[in-house]
Design brief:
By secondary structure, this protein is α+β, with helices and mostly antiparallel strands. 50% of the residues lie in helices and 12% in strands. The protein has 15 helices and twelve strands. Helix 9 crosses helix 12, helix 10 runs antiparallel to helix 14 and helix 14 packs antiparallel against helix 15. The structure holds 5-S-methyl-5-thio-alpha-D-ribofuranose (SR1) and magnesium ion. 5-S-methyl-5-thio-alpha-D-ribofuranose binds next to helix 7.
Length: 423
């Protein structure tokens, strides 16, 4: 199979025949295709994902489809998202070595990436639903975000390189469009593909759609998302885009990558930890999840703290871009000036990440793309109670973000909302 053949979706049956002569794949797993075992394991919303095992190893083959898998071919989606994913992975590997799967091969025409099979890793969201406390995720994800977001910005890159990259990723229009609609607008009106736990949440949904302050803030966040091309984002950094073992963490699936605000990745990620927190009540069949709830709030504190510390470290040691040049500060013995600018930047990331977190919580409960944290709670009354608390929390973050000064304050609010109704 070469990049020149017309696009054709792979299947479990055709994969060995079509990729049997692929050098990088054969050198990973062995070239005797009669020994290859192929499984399709994609459980995301968009793509095909195959695990291919051979006599000498295993690899993942990920292929984009020309439509949204979750919805079907009534929603076409360009194959070029695979190109953006490939280029984002190469940049993330350079900026945060060891944090993403190794790439073996990219075929633009077939929209496929052959990459490292991460084993025994599982999706972080699944681990959190199971109640597993992973000791390293906050450190690993905090470092990943600080390194990729700092090093992809005008704080670090030569401006010529950054502008060229900005132009490259500006073409990821359709995936940005998904985020722009699904995250920032659809939850707040009766959009066609929305769904929610009904009738339990009907009144709350009506209230949120009539909430003028909330709708204005959601649109302000959308404006920041669309207009602030600050750095190369992962673009979809939730707990379903992270694979873990007890000691290892890898970020996957950056097909939504584009140049946007630093706070976006951080806010989306933290929102997913807070949703995991509010969903725990629905997963207590095996016993109390009090310790898991404490753990999750601790993870948010540590992630933000690691992010801040590493971002500050890079600010002091790698600020080679055109912004806040050292010639204006350190070179004139004005270290305090550089620190003052850093404080401003961290403060603005903080305020914006709360807004992004608030709308992310809402869209996972009210929009098209829900998350398994809540969806796997079988009892709809119990699920709705968990979701209602998260919606209230999300509204507070989005609307009051300028008045919230610390992550402890956010977590006190989460604990308070959680305690309001213990059932
Ligand atoms: C139609 S795609 C829905 C969602 O799935 C992806 O993982 C992104 O989060 C997107 O918003
Ligand atoms: Mg994804």
């Amino acid at each position: 199979m070469t990049g020149k053949s017309p696009f054709e979706a792979l299947s479990v049956e055709t994969l060995a025949g079509r990729l049997g002569a692929n050098g990088p794949l054969c050198s990973q797993i062995g070239k005797n295709t009669s020994q290859w075992k192929v499984r399709e394991v994609g459980d995301g919303n968009l793509n095909l994902v195959f695990i291919v095992e051979g006599a000498e190893g295993a690899a993942v083959v990920k292929q984009a489809l020309p439509y949204v898998r979750l919805v079907g071919d009534s929603w076409p989606l360009p194959l070029k998202r695979s190109f953006f994913e490939y280029h984002a992975l190469t940049r993330q590997q350079a900026r945060a070595p060891g944090s993403v799967p190794e790439i073996y091969h990219f075929d633009e025409g077939q929209a496929l990436i052959i990459m490292e099979y991460l084993s025994p890793h599982i999706i972080l969201r699944r681990a959190l639903i199971e109640g597993r406390q992973l000791p390293n995720i906050a450190r690993d994800i905090g470092l990943f975000m600080a390194r990729t977001l700092f090093r992809g910005s005008d704080l670090s890159m030569a401006t010529k390189d950054r502008k060229a990259d900005l132009a490259l990723f500006a073409d990821n229009v359709e995936l940005c469009d998904i985020t722009e609609n699904l995250v920032f607008s659809d939850p707040y009106f009766d959009a066609k593909m929305n769904r929610h736990t009904s009738p339990q949440l009907d009144d709350i949904v009506a209230e949120l759609r009539a909430d003028r302050d909330l709708k204005v803030e959601a649109q302000r966040m959308k404006h920041i998302f669309a207009a602030n091309a600050e750095t190369l984002l992962h673009g979809d950094l939730h707990s379903g885009s992270i694979m873990v073992t007890d000691t290892e963490t890898r970020m996957i699936d950056p097909e939504f990558a584009f140049y946007g605000p630093i706070a976006f990745d951080v806010g989306m990620l933290l929102a997913n930890f807070w949703m995991a927190f509010f969903s725990q009540r629905g997963h207590e069949q095996g016993g109390s999840r009090d310790a898991m709830r404490d753990y999750l709030l601790g993870v948010t504190v540590e992630t933000w703290s690691v992010f801040r510390a590493e971002f500050s470290h890079l600010w002091r040691t790698e600020r080679t871009g055109m912004l806040y040049q050292k010639s204006l500060f350190e070179d004139q013995d004005d270290r305090l000036g550089a620190e003052q600018a850093l404080d401003h930047m961290l403060q603005s990331i903080w305020t914006d990440l709360l807004g992004f977190a608030g709308v992310e919580v809402h869209r996972r409960i009210l929009g098209l793309a829900h998350n398994a944290d809540f969806e796997t709670i079988a009892d709809p009354d119990l699920r709705a109670r968990c979701e209602a608390k998260a919606l209230k929390f999300g509204r507070h973050l989005a609307v009051n973000r300028r008045q919230i000064h610390s992550i402890d304050e956010v977590n006190q609010l989460a604990a308070l909302i959680e305690r309001e109704s213990k059932t």
